[in-house]
Amino acid sequence: MSDAKLRSVLSALAPVASQLSTLPAGQPAPDGSYVKLNTNENPFPLPDIVRQGAIAALERQYLYPEDDNLGLRQAAAASYGVPTDHVIAGNGSSELLGLVYRAFLAPGDSVAMVSPGFTFNRKLALLQGAQFLEIGCLDVDSLPTEELLHGPARKAKFILLANPNNPTGTFVPVKDIEHLVAESDRLVVLDEAYVDFAPDNGLRLVGRYPNLLILRTFSKSYAAAGIRVGFGLGHPELIGRLRNIQNVFSMNVIGHAVGLSVLAHRDAYEENHRHIRDERERVTTALSHLGFAVAPSHANFLLARVPAGHDGRWWQAALEDRKILVAFFPDKGLEDRIRVSIGTRAQMDTFLAAVSDIARSAPFAPRLTSIG
């Protein structure tokens, strides 16, 4: 295509789309020689009883999945203790989050997020031509309620918060969330992607407040990140409108089958969750001995402030040189931190050994104590 023709094609883009830069071709996924601790996946395979459902679903691959995900919604409703019309199922909670933006925002509107948070929300707001307001709450286990209700965010069409929060791992008492929802006349979207690793959840609030939407996913605690199963729970008027704009057949038959199996056998994951919590505490202690400052986490990851002398990007690169992947965020206040997903014990031992080696060989290495 000639340059002139390409410019003509691009000039027809919607104004908001024209603000998005062209993505590069991308890089291949890391091979099995890497220890992958950068995207908060659950490191374990599906329980056999859940995997059997996925294999059986392959025999129906020539059929479209069930319309409106009805059977999956019914199963989720029974499992979570709400009526079926209070549930929407989707291709991961990220699909459902996109539906919220489409349903609630018009150009010129604003949306508020407790920050730092899920950065994909910035792009979703941009695509709707909306203003994205970030209300800072780093290292704090309480909500900035006054700012959300009466500050710059008071005109936002909806409020986003995650509990536990990503990337900080902090957990806010459910009573504080209930206070925000009760006092606000706007929609509050509560992302509970990591709630199975936390001490409490907000599910009991769904029937009390029509302006609350809870998002759940099976990507983190149920080891199904590659299968894409998510749910939204809220008032039927809200849920029905979101279902009405959802893409037809948004989920596949394998996602349906795995979703149904997980809901029927959630107890099969108890040992999985116990491992994550135990390793989370062990790695927190070990990193502290190595000069890191680790915030208490209620998720399946840790956010760690790196020792003085180098920033988080440097540590990310140093670990990648040893084939260990962790996350770094360039956002203000996060430059000196890395986020580390909790993997298997062997993966975490490899990570800790590499951190110890890097810390001892790096300039300005901290004084180290024995890990034991």
Summary keywords:
Aspartate Aminotransferase, domain 2; alpha/beta; 2 domains; single chain; 3-stranded antiparallel sheet; Aspartate Aminotransferase, domain 1; 7-stranded mixed sheet; 372 residues
Shape: globular
- Estimate the mean pLDDT confidence: 90
User: Structural class of the secondary structure composition?
Assistant: alpha/beta
Give the proportion of residues in helices.
Answer: 25-40%
The counted number of beta strands is 12
Q: Can you offer a commentary on this structure?
A:
This protein has 13 helices and twelve strands. The strands form three sheets. A seven-stranded mixed beta sheet has the order 2-8-7-6-5-3-4, sandwiched between helices. Strands 9-10-12 form a three-stranded antiparallel beta sheet. A two-stranded parallel sheet has the order 1-11. The protein folds into two domains: 29-44 and 269-361, Aspartate Aminotransferase, domain 1 (Alpha-Beta Complex); 48-264, Aspartate Aminotransferase, domain 2 (3-Layer(aba) Sandwich). The longest helix has 20 residues, at 270-289. It is of the alpha/beta class. The N and C termini lie far apart (63 Å). α3 (48-57) runs antiparallel to α10, α4 (70-80) packs parallel to α10 and α11 runs parallel beside α13 (345-361).
In short:
With 372 residues, the protein is of the alpha/beta class. Helix content is 37%, strand content 14%.
Helix/strand layout:
Layout: H1 3-11, H2 15-18, E1 35-36, H3 48-57, H4 70-80, E2 87-90, H5 93-104, E3 110-115, H6 120-127, E4 131-136, H7 145-150, E5 158-162, H8 174-183, E6 187-191, E7 212-217, E8 230-234, H9 236-244, H10 253-264, H11 270-289, E9 293-294, E10 301-305, H12 312-321, E11 324-325, E12 337-341, H13 345-361
Parallel strand pairs: 1-11, 3-4, 3-5, 5-6, 6-7
Antiparallel strand pairs: 2-8, 7-8, 9-10, 10-12
